[in-house]
Amino acid sequence: MQTNVANQTSNITVEDDRTGLSIETLKRAFADNLFYIQGKLSILANFTDYYMALSYTTRDRLLQRWLQTLKVYHEQDIKTVYYLSAEFLMGRHLGNSLINLDLYESIEQAVKESGLDLTEVLEQEPDPGLGNGGLGRLAACFLDSLATLEIPAMGYGIRYEFGIFNQSIQHGWQVEIPDKWLKCGNPWEVVRYESTVQVKFGGHTEVYNDDRGRPHTRWIPSFTVEGIPHDTPVPGYQTNTVNTLRLWKAEAGEDFNFQAFNSGDYDGAVATKIKSETISKVLYPNDNTPQGRQLRLEQQFFFVSCSLQDIIRRHLKKYGRLDNLADHAAVQLNDTHPAISIAEMMRLLVDDHQMFWDEAWRITQSTFAYTNHTLMPEALEKWGVPLFESLLPRHLEIIYEINHRFLQDVQTWFPDDNELLLRLSIIEEGGGKKVRMANLATIGSHAVNGVAALHTELLKQDVLRDFYKLWPEKFNNKTNGVTPRRWVLLANPTFSELITEKIGGSWLKHLDELRKLETFIDDPEFRDRWRQIKQANKQKLADYILAHNSVEVDVNSIFDIQVKRIHEYKRQHLDLLHIIGLYLRIKQNPNIKMTPRTFIFGGKAAPGYFMAKLIIKAINAVADVVNRDPDVHGRIKVVFLANFSASLGQLIYPAADLSEQISTAGKEASGTGNMKFTMNGALTIGTLDGANIEIREEVGDDNFFLFGLTAAEVEKMKYEGYNPRDYYDSNEELRTVLDRLAMGYFSPGEKDLFKPLVDSLLHHDDYMLLADYQAYSDCQAKVSDAYQDIERWTTMSILNVARSGKFSSDRTIKEYCDDIWNVKPVKVELEPYDPARA
Ligand code: C3B
């Protein structure tokens, strides 16, 4: 492609190419980076080159703020938040950096004057998928809010070489393709070799006496791995604060190969290298269902040990002592994935820094806090003792010691309650001993939180009930939130413009101000534009669907969307049963009146999760039949969008009319997609689950389509003996729907394809689809009616947005700061860039 990038070196001489913000300087910097970093003349450059050059241009402007932030943190007496997470689903960096630097329009102009279209360049960026779903994306929203609120903070995680797989759909089935996100290089990371740390594995422990005759334990590992920090800047929105996301890459220790190599065992030497590097090779693609694989424990310990050593090293350098660690560091455990931190911190303090146990324990407990993200029993991490012992022998000893002391305390508080001891113990007995990571995290932390009000209540009453009895004051709720910068401003620019025009721009930092939109609710011009923007967003998604699925959809139909990981508890198949129900109604009566709908699905299934993959196939099979049937006459269409990701989400949320949040009550800890839909003006059809409850509370009962059993009703029904067959027998439509699916109506040539799905519903129905089917179907009829009244729908949509302020992650982060971390903002003042002084 011919552009005029190189022709733009006009007569500007004063502004610095690396910091200047004028269009001319940006153009020159862009051309310069294309030439000197990408090594390309513009006539030979491709879009990846443009993307890279533009990223470096943007990164230069971040660096000034980033290094200044580091300097301020270094010089001032501050307390820092360390967010430990095995996943960070950051989304694309370039667009977000431009937004947060307030540089979007200037760069857009500079790029345009260079003959290019910014949106096309932005599309070149690989979406760094270093997470599975909600938990990883929450971590990313939190980093954005921390920087925006000017809180000293650092994210710590793993630099996976392969992120979440790319999903393609072949013959209706999910096919996984490795995600080589680093193949063209990563302009957003800076490697800090000088801060490399050593991580030990395996081996044994031994006791020795120090100079003064005090006994200590030391760990003699069988191998050591190096952790190399890769730092990514995390800019706040319209602040100078740029925090750091530090991801660790595993490499072989320096001395790994010499012995083997010198004795001629070249293969052996390389094998060690490969084993070491395997640790940060790939993200486990499971969401809410851990697999007890050794490599996974290695990953967890690897990044925890790297991060804690890093925190201690930096603290010691600054303060020269460790007794005040908790005054300067708050470490948050994002689920149990980093829970081994509790034992590793004790090891570092007691063994390496020779601290007394009680002092080390006080520091550990006051430093750590733990967030639980799921009640699914199968998702609570447990590691077999033999595996643990072979990989982390010293940590097992430390865990036994923590457990021993803890259970002694329990015994004095509750004498003679052996059952209680068994339930509270970090070690699960019977059927092979296991280490319970949630117990370890709860005992070793000063605060434990759930992620929505209902979830926290259920934690207290159920999963962590006994701990709640011991320490009620430890437990607190922190309802999740999402960043409005990525999920509204970046994803939905015209909509954001309308809002800013009406209420000013400060809503982006104070989302509660969206309330002011209610004053415009009767303004016909405002309402018109509101609808036009939604329509235009739907058109954009329709274009995408046509290009990717070859399905033409009607932008006047209800865009009814369910995007999230595929899981039985999330009940994508309930949505599907309803679609089949509608289809059968059309088949029975081709003239039936029906509000047109486009049902859109997206989401990945864990590769080993058979039923989830079968659900994807079923959606596509139904889509094939429904979309081709002339009787349907375009009234319903079904689309499965492949490879749902953060970037695809940015296209989808703004285009939704209806948000499907239909998990079995009590199963979805919070949900965060629900919040993104609401903020972009979609209405929700949902159960009383997770944060849906709070969304409904905020937007008002009249502006939310509620259906289904409550968590308490689900429990009661299960307790009393739930029989899904009763619903099958008594509900004719439901019976026909299930029969058609089971008979092969949607799978010609493969009669029994969906039998496992139907059997599971008829015989177990763990997630109570059949019990909720009729209520869901009735509620959907109300949605269709409401959509017929376009004025009523518009009012509801505006109210949903105006009342969504609570769901900003800024609010969530402020609560963590006040109630758990006890940290305060730190202002970063910018100094003019001066290479001579730097
Ligand atoms: C998810 C939960 O399933 C969601 O309800 C919740 O909104 C998010 O975490 C964020 O809190 N979750 C996940 O994505 N992965 C897990 N292993 C556990 C929970």
From TrEMBL:
InterPro entries: Glycg_phsphrylas (IPR011833), Glyco_trans_35 (IPR000811), Pyridoxal_P_attach_site (IPR035090). Keywords: Carbohydrate metabolism, Glycosyltransferase, Pyridoxal phosphate, Transferase. The keyword Transmembrane does not apply. It is an enzyme of class 2 (transferase). The keyword Glycosyltransferase applies. Its cofactor is pyridoxal 5'-phosphate. SUPFAM superfamilies: UDP-Glycosyltransferase/glycogen phosphorylase (SSF53756). It catalyses: [(1->4)-alpha-D-glucosyl](n) + phosphate = [(1->4)-alpha-D-glucosyl](n-1) + alpha-D-glucose 1-phosphate. Its EC number is 2.4.1.1. NCBIfam families: P_ylase (TIGR02093). Phosphorylase is an important allosteric enzyme in carbohydrate metabolism. Enzymes from different sources differ in their regulatory mechanisms and in their natural substrates. However, all known phosphorylases share catalytic and structural properties. Allosteric enzyme that catalyzes the rate-limiting step in glycogen catabolism, the phosphorolytic cleavage of glycogen to produce glucose-1-phosphate, and plays a central role in maintaining cellular and organismal glucose homeostasis. Belongs to the glycogen phosphorylase family. This is Alpha-1,4 glucan phosphorylase. It comes from Phormidium tenue FACHB-1050.
